[in-house]
Design goal:
heterotrimer; A mainly alpha (275); B alpha/beta (228); C alpha/beta (316); A: 275 residues; mainly alpha; elongated; B: 228 residues; alpha/beta; five-stranded mixed beta sheet; 8 helices; transport (chain C)
Chain lengths: 275, 228, 316
């Protein structure tokens, strides 16, 4: 009996602490005007300017069609922009870890009776929440892309979105646990985000109707390889499937890759954080 | 700040992504690519370049919505072969593509669809015994599946490629029944034979279409067309 | 171990790789007392404090806080402690109130009491009108007050302050002392404070003098002063030969700082009479004062050196 109450008490404390850390991360983000500007400007830039700008080149007639794909370019890029708007804030949220160390707030947290793991999960969920909120902002642009939105497809979109949000928050936490300077972290984060985004079948389609052999004829082998090796590719593919009913890759492969893509960084970040 | 951001997003998403609608308005006419004939959806009027029929009526409500007149552009090659790229349809030839288009992977790949009506498969006539005709003048329908289903049901199958021929064959008893989508089945029955909807095949969604990337025009069409 | 002790430290040792920071320190802090840990920078104060608040695992020895072993029940120890660190530890982006509520959450203050206690604490440190300001907008002194209030939020039985007044102006410093005194008086909290400033230790109930990782003395300030017993006579003499001859005469009983000669005397009157008698030499004395020994004198007496470099910051 006392054992059980002790366990319940511990769980309650754990949840309360996780909630506290989570709430703090969210509040911090809401006061970071730089991040908010980025969160709103990125979708406009990519969907409204880049997407609309490139759409004419993907117009299809019958004979003129190079790629027979059931979407327009703006529809094609929109799920990728959702992922981009998840990646940035997710990694960025981990900066608070370096910040805390620099300005002493980590002492307040680590000298408290809160278990470190609760702090970790608070940070992870906080970063994930911030990322999800920014990713969902992009969905406001769905009407611009002429994608019919159903609530079911929105719910379905949450799963691959959460995958990316958590995975990149964990990657950020892992990096931040090992890095001491803001600049170093910023440089690292950027060199990670942009290639991961561009090599994810995000802004140019690897022709879906081609087999692997044919794809290798139209694209250099290294590019095809990198796109296939990039876990973000599968996240975007899952999102396209949910939103457009279209996918390029095998769903079982995609889901396996995505599960590993969440678990491995989370475990690595957890260990780096506990040290 | 966040509210301002959301308002900004809601505002920019209303920006026209292209000038297709403006072009149509400026020209004053909406050019519509159609197959030569598809009763009762599109019935050419002899001696004029006008069409009547259900889809013709739909086109008129679309043009009324936009505030322009219709210009019909019949495509003689439409439906001739299995590969639509041989039909001679060109984005430069028209603004709107109409004529028994059914929402499917193939049509969605080439066009931006505006679905307007979901219909069932139906037999014109009584398919009790004897030969059954299959007439599918719809772009995007899997004819092979319909044919397989008929064979699996034990019918002696005959293909038709012309509505008048199919009607004629039914009325003179050459076939006991003709399978098609509901509106066409009714036209073939011509009020004389019974029409029996079947649930053996899943229903199909009829649509009109714009070319890809002509989003503003597509939206204007959506506003004028009832949702299925 | 006595029941009334909040802290029990016995034979605490700690070394960082090659440096021995603590070499066997033992003491106990009675409940409700104001305990000052006085020593120069690098004496081992911070190591001792970190061992107390379970941020550091000592190499050897035993530490108990409120009867709880810091090694066996670190989480329970942390709950009974209120901490004020040497450097600021607030989240500048959160408001003052949010900082407090955050603290209440991670210290498991029941939900219903969080806001109420946060307001009570703000009232205590007189920061109510700043409740909704970002913590980053506060001055250093206000931040420190907030941190003291925050340390009280979860009703600890012991508040540990590591050099709480470092870098603050005189006014803020005085204010912080007022709050600390009030805490001890009104709430019966035990205060443990580390400092390298004598003035801060003077008002304590107990002063432990620590140097080079060892406890040099532990007693109440007046007793420590009485240890020296005698009065001190400060003579300012510019003439070097005169200074020299005096210091030779009182060898072992006098120390010299610049032109000031300090002589310990059991009976200062006798010494003065003797000085005045020699009229010619008496005129060479520029100034004279008779003082009670300060804790600094005790410190010098115990360790043979001054507490810290003479800077305006530390001196009275």
């Amino acid at each position: 009996m006392t054992g059980l109450t002790r366990v319940l008490r511990y769980l309650h404390d754990f949840a309360a602490a996780t909630h506290a850390v989570w709430l703090r991360e969210v509040l911090r983000m809401l006061r970071d005007s730089g991040q908010i500007v980025g969160a709103f400007s990125r979708p406009v830039l990519w969907v409204m300017i880049f997407g609309i700008g490139l759409t004419p080149y993907f117009r299809t007639g019958l004979r003129e069609t190079t790629f027979m794909v059931p979407f327009t370019y703006i529809q094609f890029i929109l799920p990728a922009v959702v992922v981009l708007n998840l990646m940035y804030p997710a990694i960025q949220s981990a900066v608070s870890l370096i910040w805390d160390r620099e300005f002493g707030f980590s002492r307040e947290v680590f000298a408290s009776p809160t278990p470190r793991s609760a702090v970790f999960f608070g940070k992870l969920l906080g970063g994930g929440t911030i990322a999800m909120a920014q990713g969902l902002l992009v969905l406001l642009l769905l009407p611009a892309a002429n994608v019919p939105v159903s609530y079911a497809s929105l719910l379905g979109a949450l799963v691959p979105m959460a995958t990316v949000a958590l995975a990149f928050t964990a990657i950020g936490l892992f990096l931040a646990s090992r890095m001491s300077s803001f600049q170093g972290f910023g440089v690292f984060a950027n060199t990670l985000i942009l290639p991961a985004f561009f090599l994810a079948s995000s802004i140019f389609p690897l022709d879906p109707s081609l087999s692997m052999e044919q794809a290798l004829q139209s694209f250099p082998a290294w590019l095809v390889f990198l796109v296939h090796a990039n876990p973000v590719t599968y996240a975007i593919d899952e999102l396209r499937w949910v939103m457009l009913g279209y996918r390029q890759f095998d769903p079982i492969t995609a889901r396996t890759v995505l599960s590993a893509f969440v678990l491995i960084p989370v475990i690595m970040a957890y260990h780096a954080f506990r040290r | 700040m966040i509210i301002a951001g959301i308002i900004m997003l809601l505002a920019v998403r209303e920006l026209p992504p292209d000038s297709s609608l403006a072009d149509v308005r400026e020209a004053g006419t909406l050019i519509v690519c159609v197959p030569p004939s598809l009763p009762p959806l599109l019935i050419p009027q002899p001696g004029s370049d006008r069409y009547e029929g259900t889809e013709a009526a739909l086109v008129r409500s679309i043009t009324a919505g936009i505030g322009v007149s219709v210009q019909w552009n019949p495509q003689p090659g439409w439906g001739d072969t299995i590969d639509p790229s041989d039909w001679g349809l060109r984005p430069s030839a028209c603004d709107l593509v109409v004529g028994g288009i059914v929402a499917a992977e193939e049509t969605r790949s080439l066009l931006e669809l505006v679905p307007y009506h979901t219909v069932r498969w139906a037999f014109a006539g009584d398919p009790g015994a004897g030969a059954v005709g299959l007439y599918v003048p719809f772009w995007g329908v899997d004819r092979g599946r319909a044919a397989r289903w008929l064979r699996d049901e034990g019918y002696d199958l005959r293909f038709f490629f012309n509505a008048d021929v199919a009607r004629e064959a039914l009325s003179n008893g050459e076939v006991r029944a003709v399978l098609s989508l509901e509106p066409v089945a009714e036209w073939i029955a011509a009020g004389q034979d019974i029409v029996t909807p079947t649930t053996g095949l899943p229903g199909e969604t009829l649509a009109v279409a714009t070319w890809k990337g002509r989003t503003t025009l597509n939206r204007a069409v959506q506003r004028a067309v009832p949702s299925p | 171990m006595t029941d009334s002790a909040v802290i029990e430290v016995s034979d605490l040792r700690h070394s960082y790789s090659s440096v021995e920071a603590l070499r066997g320190v033992s003491f106990s802090v009675p409940r409700g007392s104001f305990f000052a840990l006085l020593g120069p920078n690098g004496a081992g104060k911070t190591t001792l404090v970190h061992a107390l608040c379970t941020l550091l695992r000592p190499s050897a020895g035993h530490v108990a806080v409120a009867g709880l072993d810091v090694r066996r029940a670190p989480r329970d120890v942390r709950r009974t402690l209120g901490l004020v660190f040497q450097e600021p530890s607030l989240d500048d982006r959160l408001t003052v109130f949010e900082n407090l509520v955050f603290h209440a959450r991670i210290y498991q203050v029941p939900r219903r009491q969080r806001r109420e206690r946060a307001w009570a604490v703000l009232e205590l440190v007189e920061l109510q009108e700043w409740a909704n300001a970002p913590a980053g907008n506060l001055s250093r002194g206000m931040k420190r007050r907030l941190e003291i209030g925050r340390a009280m939020l979860h009703e600890p039985s012991l508040v540990v302050l590591d050099e709480p007044t470092t870098g603050l102006d005189v006014q803020s410093r005085r204010r912080i002392w007022e709050y600390l005194e009030r805490l001890q008086r009104d709430y019966g909290v035990t205060l443990l404070l580390t400092t390298h400033q004598i003035s801060e230790a003077e008002g304590a109930d107990l002063v432990a003098i620590i140097d080079r990782g060892e406890l040099q003395a532990l007693d109440c300030p007046s007793t420590l002063r009485q240890r020296i017993g005698r009065k001190l006579i400060n003579l300012q003499i510019r003439d070097e030969s005169f200074r020299q001859s005096l210091s030779e005469r009182f060898t072992g009983r006098c120390t010299q700082r610049d032109t000031v000669l300090q002589i310990e005397a059991d009976d200062p009157d006798e010494l003065l009479r003797e000085l005045v008698a020699d009229e010619e030499r008496w005129t060479m004395v520029d100034s004279l004062e008779i003082v009670d020994p300060s804790l600094e004198d005790v410190f010098i007496n115990l360790t043979g050196r001054e507490l810290r470099d003479r800077t305006a910051d530390g001196m009275r």
